Amino acid sequence: MKKTLVACCSAAVLALIITILATFQIASTGIIPEKSDIVIPMSVSRPGCETTNSCYAPPEITVNAGKTITWINKDRAFHTVTSGYYDKFDGMFDSGHIDPGQTFSFKFGKLGDFHYFCNLHPWMEGTVIVK
Ligand SMILES: [Cu+2]
Q: Ligand 1 mean position to 80 CA, how many Å?
């Protein structure tokens, strides 16, 4: 009886250790996306970030033509990266809902200033300048 209990507890401890190691492995191998050019910060689903122009960080980025920009959602809410203005979609790109922790990428081939916003939170705005 005592031996069975010891074996059972050892198995449980071993399973716990394996789970912890597996979690660490996922975090350290980059399966969780880390690389991004623009961050969607925490709590921007509430109005306020527009007063400090910090709904996307950075709110404005200048790149060479052909560059792929990646946004990462570090908030706990869904967001979108949608080209144009809230009352005037231009149809160039639209991420759809970006889940927390997920990314969206778009390659900018044409020159110009490209305004974008969040379709769910119209106060969120940013610009990509392609030179
Ligand atoms: Cu949003």
A: 6
Cα 81 to middle of ligand 1, angstroms:
8
Query: What pLDDT was estimated at residue 25?
Result: 43
Beta-carbon neighbours within 5 Å of ion ligand 1: 79, 118, 120-121, 124
Q: Is residue 18 scored above 60 in pLDDT? A: no
* Ligand 1 centroid from CA 62, angstroms: 22
Secondary structure, 3-state, the chain: CHHHHHHHHHHHHHHHHHHHHHHHHHHHCCCCCCCCCEEECCCCCCCCHHHCCCCCECCEEEECCCEEEEEEECCCCCECCEEEECCEEEEEEECCCECCCCEEEEEECCCEEEEEECCCCCCCEEEEEEC
For 23, the domain range is 1-32
- Cα of 71 to ligand 1 centre, how many Å? 12
Instruction: Tell me the whole-structure pTM to 2 decimals.
Output: 0.74
pLDDT band at residue 35 using 50, 70 and 90 as cut-offs:
confident
**Whether 79 and 111 share a structural domain:** yes
The reply to whether 123 and 68 lie within a common domain is yes
Residues 118 and 57 in one domain: yes
